[in-house]
Structure formats: structure tokens, C-alpha cells
């Protein structure tokens, strides 16, 4: 069955034709998400590659080119391969993406991501030449990664099937959490290699730890059981205790007490391992997503075939279910009109009821799906609202991103409310605050 | 420019290509809504025809075939023509509807509407034969009208452009309000022709009056200035006072005091006139919608052409903005790599910034559109939540639709809250109430 084949315009529209069209449309959407899954997987891989490249580049820059030179080059080569895979996945879904009538947001995010990718070679050259600071290099890579994750976020927003939407919400939160972890690695490296954490660095660490934990909490609320289990094992791992110890050490050491710079390598290795493990959780979600897509696609295809067969079998009593609008000419006796055949035709009635059941079932099912979609949509909405609240605080109080997050968290704590709630209240006051 | 032409898969994806694709996608969407406008107009006309047919049919049945026989036949003929126009509008948008990846809901509603339209001829035959009651006939027509309006509601939900979404929200509330008015006509006719309003009839009148006023309030919050003006003039018209007088008369007369049955014709004529006037307001909104669509389409097309020209003119410095991922081979000196050309190339940098500005502008614009869309989406959401709350109350307390509406209104009044708020609270308690 070729579902991409556009349906012929039926001679006369009917409940059956639109019922089939509605089912076919669901199938098309699932096929789209099967391909989207591949694109997301390629983005997840590319992001991981860039995170590794960023880590190596910061060490390379921080050590004045002494450390991680060859490793970094290997990682650059790796990212380049991953970029090619990403391009290929995009090419496969290109037609669907560019003809999707509500796809302009996703395409704009892709434009933005490609703009970032376009300056990657320049960034690498600067790192090679050691002509930019560690923090500028980190910042540039982070911006690029942020834009790639934004594409996945946008894809999650367009999901219609609730089970798929939930997995995408899990995925995007996991990717965000892992990226916070990557930034924590950079922040920690800066502190340990410099021999101390100043207030800004410790506060940044605290913020990044909290931010990633919040992402993982949302993840646990939406991911499949297996992936949740993987994240829980990761959190229970030996390594986490050591990471916690280093975090404490970094943040609690006084201003003048120097840290052993050798801790830097230890820290970097530990967090890198953690990120590789997080990547495995991502892969598990990707696997679930693909499996669920394939399952839903098979279900939808069978269901469509079943409906088509059912309707064909019911199609015996000719066209009695097609809308017959009878012109009642004045003066003509109603009893003799053709429309009457319908009500006295037992088969027609039975047929009418069957089609009615199918139509009702489809409406109820779609309604239920919309309702089930709600919580996934809310999680995405919460995330957007929080980002907006942070931007608002930054511009209004002239503070930086970390500080804005802190203010928001403090507000929530003081008011005994949840973060999204406080963020919403703040955003709703935006006009007044201006 | 042929926007329906699918874009060729570019050799290498780039920020420019996706920026253009994003703009093109917006244009496609606007073209879709230009056609959708015609479909909505044809639905609005068909609904008006069916409302007139329903009115005539109830009088015909109520007078044992004495009154409105020829008028009714003329109206049936008229509806039949309107149905043909509706079919034609559907045929024009058929391909877009059936290939829209998130169109399954709209298609399911169309299936449901066609199922209703399929039994119209049987209904007419029964009216001709006077073999069903006035209330059964009213009920059948109302169900059909309800399903047609649901198609418009679903179309409103898929709007992405905020100005268009707002007009569709206005439209759907006006259609709903007018339909409540049509039901009020039937209820009033039943009371006046029967010589009295029992408690059920008066309560139903009250409910329908309140429900239509609430719809009109939402309408005034979303419609264009001209259409709002038309509705205000309609409300200030002489006729409204007379309608109010009859409403009072109907609802305040005691159980045993009979009303003059001649009032029935007077009432019917007045409300029919009112509905014809409401239809004119609908036509004004349709006009605004079409105008706005055409305007936005022209804007988007110009903007796309402008972007394409700008990008072409910037395309001189060759491929410098295309993502150049340079493989850094270990041991090779970074300074000599091709990526370096970028950072030292003034033109390339200028070019990079320009594309960046365009990409940023597109993201900001889409972001702003999403935010502006919010209030329109909320109005639709509120409407759905209220319908859900009513269904919940009906099933939970075993009461009818009118009574459920009354309970909901009383709750809102007692708590000093708005109706949507109470409805939301109720729906959120659904699981507890089960």
C-alpha cells in the first residue's frame, strides 16, 4: 500500500471517504515520525560528537596546546562523519519537511542550526591557532549545540500521537540535561585546572547541577520503563559518588586554598564517562521511539486496511449512504420521493449505523489522543515559559543567565510553588514589568 | 512563482536554503487558508440554509402541514444548491485536506458531517410525511448543524497566523451564537404556539439567551472592527426590544395563563430577521478573513521574493556560508586549512552577518506569532473545556444539557469566578468524580 499516493478526488464526498482519509492522514503522520526519528538520532549523535569536541578543545586551549591535540583532531574527524550522517537523514526527510504546512518553525530552527554549523570550520581554525579563549570556545560550541537541540524540541512540538510525543519530551529533556552536564564539565575543568573556584564558578556549578536534575526528573516522568531504568542505574553508579565529592570539594574550598590541578583530569574523565553513559540512555529512548513508531504504524495500517475492507463489504446496498439531497418541488407529493427508500430500507439503516459507529469511534479516538497529548504539550510549554521568564529577568534586572535562574528558583522556594508556576506568573506580568 | 512546486533537494543544506524553505512553508499555509476561507463560507451558507429549513419544517409540522409548506420546499431547494457549493469548495481543497499531515481531526469531523448529511433526505421525507415530532425534527437538524460548525472549529484550531486565527475564533463563536439563536427560535415557537411556556421551556430559553450572549462577547473580543460594529448595531436595533419583550412575556406568564398563539408567527418572524442579520455579520467576518488572507499572502510572497533576491545578491562570495566541515588530520598545521579563509574574509563575514540577521529575524517573527496566537488558542480551549465540563456533569449527575449548563453557571457565580475557570477546575477533578 502506497500511502504517499495522493488520493483521487472522489466523485461525491461521503462519510466513508473522509473516514478513510482521516485514517490515512494518521498513517502519513506516523510515517513522517518514523523518518523524523532517524533525523533526531543523527542530531543526538552529532550533538554528542560536538560535546566531545568541545571538551577536548577546551582542554587543548587551557593547556596551551599541550594536551588533547591528537585526540581533538580525531574528535573533529568523528564530528565531521556525524555531520554527514545528519545531512543524509535530512535529505531523506527533506520533501516532508519542506511541504509540511505547519513546518515553518522547524525549518527556521534548521536554518539557525546550519548557520551555526557554517561557522564551525572557522571556530576550529581559531582553536587550532589558539587565538580564542577557553570560555569563548565553550560559548561558541554551546550555542551550536543549543540550536541543534532546539530542532528536536520543535519536532517534539509537532507530534500528534501521545505515546510518541511523550518519548520526544523525554528525549529533549534528556538532551538538555546532558548538555547541562557538558557545561558542568567545562565549568569544573576551568575551576580545577585554575586551582580554585571563585564565587561565579561555584554558583554556575550549582545552577548546572540543579538544571540537569530538573531535566532528568521530567525525563523520568515521560520516558519508557527501560530507559528510566538505565538512568536510575546511572545515578546509582559508584562514579556518581566520586563526582559528588569533587563537586563539593570545588564549591566548598575557600578563596585562598588552592586545589590540586591534577584533579582537573580526574574530573574531566569522570564527567566524560557520565556523558557517554547518558548517551546510552538517549540511544535507548531512540530505540523505544523507533519501536513505538513502527508499532503504531503497523497498527494504523492494519486498522486502515480493516476499515477499507469493512466499508467495501458494506458497499453492497449501492449508494444509500451517500448524501442524497432531494429537491422537493412544490406541489409534488413527498411520499413518492426517492429519499424515502432510505428510511424503509433495512439494509441501508444497518449500513448507516455501521458507518456511524466507525465515524464515532474515530472521533472518540482522536479526541482521546488530544487529551492524552495534553501532559506532553504542557511539559514543553513549561520549558518554553521558563526560558522566557529567564530572558525577561535578564533584560529587566540586567543580570546574567545563571543569576536569572537563581532568582527564579528563589522565587519558587519562597512562595512554596513549582518553578513552572512561578515562571508563568512572571511571564504574565511581562507587560507590567516593561 | 509556483509555490506548490516541491523544492528540489539542495546539494548541500544551508541556512539560506532552510530560511527560504521556512518562508515558503508559511506561504503554503496562507494559500491553504485562502481556500479554507471559501470552504468556511460555504459551510456558513449551508448552515444558514439548514437553519431556515429547520425553522420552516418545525412550523410545517407544528401546524399539521397547514403552514409553510411551499416556503419549506423552496428552502429545501435552496439548501440543496448550497450543499452543491459546499461540495465544490471541498473538492477544491481536497488535495490539501487529505495530505495535510495533521489533518486527521478535520477529516474525521467532515466524515461525521457527511454522515449527518447522508440522512438528510430521510429526514426530509419524514417531515413531508409528518411522521416525526417537532422536537425530533429540530433535534436532527440541530445535530447536523452542530457537526458542520465543528468542522469550522477544527479549521480554526489549525490556524498558525494569529490574525487569521483570531478571525476564525470570532467566526466560530458567531456561528455558535447564531445557532443558539436558532434554537431559541424553535423553543419560543413551541411555547407561543402551544399557548404557554412550562418550566422546562422557560429554563431552556434562559439558557439559550445566555449561551448566545457569551458567544457574542467572545466574538467581540476577536472580530475585526467593522464586523464588531455590525453586531453592535444589530443589538441596538429596534427589533431587539420587541424580542426582549416577547422573551419576558414567554418566561414570566404563569402556568395557567394562556398566551395568544398568534404571537408565535410574530416571534418566528422577528427571530428569523435577527438570524438573517447575524448572517450578514458572518459574511462581514468572512470578507475580513479573505481580505486578511490575501494581504498576508501578498506580504509573505513579497517577503519571500525579497529574501531570495537578497540571498542571491549575497551569493557572490561563493560558498563561504555553506557549512565547511574541515577534517583536521592529526599532525597537519591548522593555519593552512581552508576554513581559515572564512575568518579572514571580510566579505564572507559581512555575508555571514546578513544571513544571520535574516535567520534571527525569521525566528523572532515566528516566535512572536506563536505568542500572539496564544489568546486565540485559549478561547478555543475554553470552549472545548466547557463542553467537556457539561458532558461530565451530564453523565455524573444524570442531568440534561441545559441543567448541566445551569449548574456550571451557578458554580461560577457562587465562586465569583469566570465560567472557563470553573469548567477547568471541574474537568481537572474528572478522575476523582468518576
What do these coordinates show?
- 2 copies of one chain form a homodimer.
- Chain A has 434 residues and is mainly α.
- Chain A has 2 domains: 15-298, no CATH class; 351-434, Orthogonal Bundle (Arc Repressor Mutant, subunit A).
- Chain A has 15 helices and no strands.
- Chain A has helices at 15-62, 69-99, 104-118, 120-128, 134-157, 162-194, 199-222, 225-236, 238-252, 263-314, 340-344, 346-397, 401-415, 419-428, 430-433.
- The radius of gyration of chain A is 28 Å and the shape is globular.
- Mean pLDDT of chain A is 84; it is low at 1-9 and 318-350.
- The interface between A and B is large, with 96 and 95 residues.
Which properties best describe this structure?
disordered N terminus; globular; mainly alpha; 434 residues; 15 helices; homodimer; Arc Repressor Mutant, subunit A
Amino acid at each position: 500500500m502506497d500511502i504517499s499516493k495522493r488520493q483521487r478526488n472522489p466523485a461525491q464526498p461521503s462519510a466513508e471517504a473522509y473516514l478513510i482519509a482521516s485514517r490515512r492522514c494518521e498513517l502519513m503522520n506516523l510515517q513522517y515520525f518514523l523518518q523524523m526519528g532517524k533525523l533526531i538520532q543523527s542530531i543526538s549523535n552529532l550533538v554528542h560528537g560536538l560535546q566531545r569536541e568541545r571538551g577536548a578543545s577546551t582542554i587543548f586551549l587551557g593547556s596551551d596546546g599541550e594536551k588533547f591535540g591528537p585526540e581533538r583532531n580525531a574528535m573533529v574527524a568523528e564530528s565531521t562523519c556525524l555531520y554527514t550522517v545528519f545531512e543524509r537523514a535530512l535529505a531523506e526527510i527533506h520533501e516532508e519537511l519542506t511541504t509540511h504546512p505547519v513546518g515553518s518553525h522547524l525549518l527556521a530552527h534548521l536554518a539557525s542550526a546550519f548557520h551555526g554549523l557554517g561557522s564551525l570550520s572557522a571556530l576550529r581554525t581559531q582553536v587550532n591557532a589558539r587565538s580564542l579563549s577557553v570560555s569563548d570556545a565553550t560559548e561558541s560550541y554551546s550555542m551550536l549545540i543549543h540550536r541543534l537541540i532546539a530542532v528536536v524540541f520543535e519536532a517534539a512540538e509537532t507530534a500528534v500521537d501521545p505515546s510518541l510525543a511523550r518519548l520526544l519530551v523525554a528525549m529533549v529533556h534528556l538532551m538538555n540535561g546532558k548538555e547541562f552536564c557538558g557545561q558542568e564539565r567545562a565549568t569544573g575543568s576551568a575551576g580545577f585546572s585554575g586551582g580554585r573556584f571563585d564565587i561565579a564558578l561555584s554558583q554556575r556549578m550549582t545552577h548546572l547541577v540543579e538544571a540537569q536534575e530538573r531535566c532528568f526528573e521530567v525525563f523520568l516522568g515521560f520516558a519508557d520503563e527501560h530507559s528510566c531504568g538505565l538512568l536510575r542505574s546511572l545515578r546509582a553508579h559508584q562514579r556518581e559518588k566520586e563526582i559528588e565529592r569533587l563537586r563539593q570539594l570545588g564549591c566548598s574550598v575557600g578563596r585562598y586554598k588552592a586545589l590540586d590541578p591534577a584533579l582537573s583530569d580526574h574530573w574531566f574523565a569522570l564527567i566524560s564517562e557520565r556523558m557517554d553513559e547518558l548517551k546510552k540512555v538517549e540511544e535507548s529512548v531512540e530505540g523505544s521511539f523507533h519501536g513505538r513508531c513502527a508499532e503504531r504504524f503497523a497498527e494504523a495500517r492494519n486498522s486502515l486496511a480493516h476499515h477499507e475492507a469493512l466499508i467495501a463489504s458494506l458497499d453492497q446496498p449501492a449508494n444509500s449512504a451517500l448524501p442524497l439531497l432531494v429537491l422537493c418541488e412544490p406541489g409534488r407529493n413527498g411520499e413518492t420521493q426517492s429519499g424515502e427508500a432510505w428510511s424503509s430500507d433495512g439494509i441501508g439503516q444497518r449500513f448507516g449505523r455501521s458507518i456511524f459507529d466507525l465515524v464515532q469511534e474515530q472521533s472518540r479516538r482522536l479526541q482521546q489522543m488530544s487529551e492524552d497529548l495534553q501532559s506532553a504539550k504542557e511539559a514543553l510549554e513549561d520549558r518554553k515559559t521558563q526560558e522566557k521568564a529567564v530572558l525577561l529577568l535578564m533584560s529587566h534586572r540586567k543580570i546574567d543567565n545563571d543569576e536569572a535562574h537563581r532568582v527564579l528558583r528563589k522565587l519558587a522556594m519562597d512562595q512554596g510553588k513549582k518553578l513552572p508556576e512561578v515562571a508563568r506568573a512572571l511571564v504574565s506580568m511581562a507587560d507590567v514589568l516593561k
